[in-house]
Write a structure and sequence with these properties.
It is a single chain. The protein folds into two domains: 86 residues, Rossmann fold (3-Layer(aba) Sandwich), CATH 3.40.50.10860; 122 residues, NAD(P)-binding Rossmann-like Domain (Rossmann fold, 3-Layer(aba) Sandwich). Helices cover 41% and strands 16% of the residues. It has ten helices and eleven strands. The radius of gyration is 19 Å and the shape is globular. The termini are far apart. Bound molecules: NADP nicotinamide-adenine-dinucleotide phosphate. NADP nicotinamide-adenine-dinucleotide phosphate (NAP) binds next to helix 10.
């Protein structure tokens, strides 16, 4: 019998706890989200972030720019937000238009306001085994979900598929910190299923349906990060949920698994940055 890793339920629990802490505060944290252009998926993500923040009592501001904004204009805005004492969390929604360097943007956000944990300072801290100001939201959410179900990672073989800067790469460090043995795969990996069959924990972050039940060891733990729309417009994950759930001991669904945990982590990060700022005053 498989157990569903229920991200919605845990998100609701985390947000309720956070709300009761926020209700007691006179001054609330403020999160600024910058959205450049008209990417429909980004627009939905940004609106969901705002809706969640508003619901629990975090002030949220969306700053929208047209696609043609220059890099300098965006950098100037970030400098201004860095200096603004009323703002304690800044998120620049990715992807950015091609003429804007993501690296230059990340290099400019004050690491103490870097709510996504993507600035070189925070990533560097994470990879050197030190505590960053903020941890990247999706890997943080995955770990919170595994912890909620008391899934032990020490000595386990964790296989990650996908090596992006936002999911796969930071996850390596999260899992190493818990003494897992980590293998990371990508589009050039040969004989993927030979590797996935050795996984005690499989985390897939690709964005297409690639994981079938014959690629897995019985009773493995499966975390599905991927999100895409199939031909009928339905939201899907990387994993053939129906068949894999027959052999996995735990499995996260899409939707309702990692997605809600990413939002919960963002709210936790906003609150933690706010507390950090206040503790320094
Ligand atoms: P990304 O930057 O596009 O990375 C995808 C990764 O998958 C790359 O490393 C790519 O390898 C690898 N890959 C592609 N095809 C493969 C194959 N056939 N076999 C093995 N590896 C393959 O994507 P991302 O930003 O990490 O996102 C991945 C997925 O997770 C997307 O569906 C995204 O929507 C979803 N996501 C969900 C959340 C959430 O909160 N649930 C958060 C973030 C992302 P190469 O590096 O060799 O190209």
């Amino acid at each position: 019998m498989t157990t569903i890793l229920d991200g919605k339920k845990l998100r609701d629990k985390i947000l309720a706890e956070l709300k009761s802490k926020l209700d007691k505060l006179e001054k609330k944290p403020t999160l600024v989200v910058i959205l450049v252009g008209n990417n429909p998926a980004s627009r939905i993500y940004v609106e969901n972030k705002k809706k969640t923040a508003d619901k629990i009592g975090i002030n949220s501001i969306i700053i929208k720019y047209p696609e043609k904004i220059t890099e300098k204009e965006l950098l100037d805005k970030i400098h201004e937000l860095n200096k603004d004492d009323n703002i304690n969390a800044i998120l620049v929604q990715l992807p950015l238009p091609k003429h804007i360097s993501k690296e230059n943007i990340m290099n400019t956000i004050d690491p103490r306001k870097d709510v996504d944990g993507f600035t070189p300072y925070n990533i560097g801290k994470l990879f050197s085994g030190e505590k960053p100001f903020c941890y990247p939201c999706t890997p943080k959410g995955i770990l919170l979900l595994l912890d909620e179900y008391n899934i032990e990672l020490e000595g386990k073989h964790a296989v990650i598929i996908g090596r992006s800067n936002i999911v796969g790469k930071p996850l390596i460090q999260f899992l190493l910190n818990r003494n897992a043995t980590v293998t990371i795969c990508h589009s050039h990996t040969k004989n993927l299923s030979d590797i996935t069959k050795t996984a005690d924990i499989l985390i897939s972050a690709v964005g297409e349906k690639i994981i079938e039940e014959n690629m897995l060891k019985p009773n493995c733990i499966v975390v599905d990060v991927g999100i895409f729309k199939d031909a009928t417009g339905k939201t899907r994950g990387d994993v053939d949920f129906e068949n894999v759930s027959k052999i996995a001991s735990y499995i996260s669904p899409v939707p309702g698994g990692v997605g809600p945990m990413t939002i919960a982590s963002l709210m936790l990060n906003t609150f933690e940055l706010f507390e950090l700022k206040n503790s320094n005053h």
